[in-house]
């Protein structure tokens, strides 16, 4: 089954073609990072306009690389939630028109389900059930993946997502956008014990997260150093921050796997590229006898391949959308599409 999938939830315009979900024939991503770097973060209005400018070319390129004619497609998948509403609308409206013109089924895909599906591409042997730590710019979740379309949230953040904390910490340290990768690079040159940073615990919710206090602590350390004229150990602070995030994420992921009796732990989302997190999870899972699935860096960020993969499983589950499909800025990963 050939599926064309479109992803435009944030600042990447992406399209991919998959064969039966797990075999990716093309995966084209047009990044806007350089443009948003001027502003130190994503400007939603600019993101939407750039999606409009780029989506036709990205889809055409995905079909060309896959060697597929548009009439050979069996379905069109699209990210419809969650994300920046203006950006999502570009992809949704394009996909609706494209599917209608070709008289093909339209498959709505939840963006975070797509991130989990990146592991199905990287690891063809991986099948539910398993536990997943999902960490991206806008979401931090622990998910019990009972089936390809049957997911239950075990824990979530009460305030900032881990990826957001990375971006804010990178900005206060004067690092260029996008900050996550730059912060990771700087952190590898520092001492993870250079600064004492908080590890928040949510009372009564041992699997939930909180990163606002950590973000504030980093900002206060930087501002205090500036006000007192003290030299700041930037690499040490970056390293201490990455260590604190890993100390927050990993124990909860291990506990979630224990509570669900999982033998497999997958990781997904942009923060899954962080070297501190990957190293710590590799050690902890080896010690606990858990099979760990870490997607390659190319599949950690937003891309069309992960949407194409999840679209296949949504199609098998009977998910279809028509002209009434609308974008949703927020939506739980547990919810399937409802018109």
Task: Give descriptors for this structure.
Nucleotidyltransferase, domain 5; 339 residues; alpha/beta; five-stranded mixed beta sheet; 2 domains; single chain
Could you walk me through the main structural features you see in this protein, from its secondary elements to its overall organization?
- This protein is an alpha/beta fold and 339 residues long.
- It folds into two domains: 2-115 and 301-316, Nucleotidyltransferase, domain 5 (2-Layer Sandwich); 128-299, ATPase, nucleotide binding domain (Nucleotidyltransferase, domain 5).
- The protein has helices at 33-37, 44-66, 85-102, 111-122, 162-172, 179-187, 212-228, 234-259, 275-288, 304-316, and strands at residues 2-7, 12-19, 23-31, 75-81, 106-110, 130-135, 140-145, 151-156, 264-268, 291-293.
- Strand 4 (75-81), helix 3 and strand 5 (106-110) form a beta-alpha-beta unit.
- The chain starts with a strand and ends in a 23-residue tail after the last helix.
Q: CATH homologous superfamily of the largest domain, by name?
A: ATPase, nucleotide binding domain
Distance between the termini: 25 Å
Number of helical segments with 4 or more residues: 10
SSE order, as H and E? Answer: EEEHHEHEHEEEHHHHEHEH
CATH fold title of the largest domain: Nucleotidyltransferase, domain 5
Supply the CATH class of the largest domain. Answer: Alpha Beta
* Secondary structure: helix percent: 40-55%
Radius of gyration: 20 Å
């Amino acid at each position: 089954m050939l599926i064309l999938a479109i992803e435009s939830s944030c600042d990447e315009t992406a399209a991919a073609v998959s064969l039966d979900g797990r075999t990716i024939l093309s995966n084209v991503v047009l990044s806007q990072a350089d443009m948003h770097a001027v502003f130190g973060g994503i400007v939603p209005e600019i993101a939407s306009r750039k999606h409009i400018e780029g989506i036709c070319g990205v889809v055409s390129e995905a079909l060309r690389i896959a060697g597929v004619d548009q009439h050979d497609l069996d379905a069109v998948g699209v990210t419809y939630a969650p994300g920046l509403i203006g950006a999502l609308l570009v992809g949704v409206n394009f996909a609706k028109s494209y599917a209608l013109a070709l008289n093909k089924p339209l498959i709505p895909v939840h963006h975070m389900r797509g991130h989990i599906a990146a592991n199905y591409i990287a690891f063809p042997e991986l099948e539910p059930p398993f536990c997943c730590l999902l960490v991206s710019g806008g979401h931090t979740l622990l998910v019990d993946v009972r089936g390809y379309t049957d997911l239950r949230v075990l824990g979530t953040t009460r305030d900032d997502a881990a990826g957001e904390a990375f971006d804010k910490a990178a900005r206060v340290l004067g690092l260029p956008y996008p900050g996550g990768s730059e912060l990771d690079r700087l952190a590898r040159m520092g001492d993870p014990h250079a600064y004492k940073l908080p590890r928040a615990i949510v009372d009564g919710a041992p699997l939930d997260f909180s990163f606002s206090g950590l973000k504030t602590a980093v900002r206060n350390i930087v501002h205090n150093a500036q006000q007192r004229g003290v030299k700041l150990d930037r690499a040490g602070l970056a390293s201490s921050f990455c260590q604190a995030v890993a100390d927050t994420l990993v124990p909860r992921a291990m506990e979630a796997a224990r509570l669900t009796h999982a033998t497999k732990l997958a990781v997904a989302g942009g923060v899954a590229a962080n070297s501190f997190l990957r190293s710590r999870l590799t050690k902890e899972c080896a010690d606990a006898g858990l099979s760990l699935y870490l997607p390659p860096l190319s599949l950690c960020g937003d891309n069309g391949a992960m949407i194409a993969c999840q679209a296949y499983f949504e199609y098998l589950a009977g998910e279809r959308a028509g002209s009434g499909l609308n974008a949703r800025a927020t939506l739980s990963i547990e919810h399937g599409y409802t018109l």
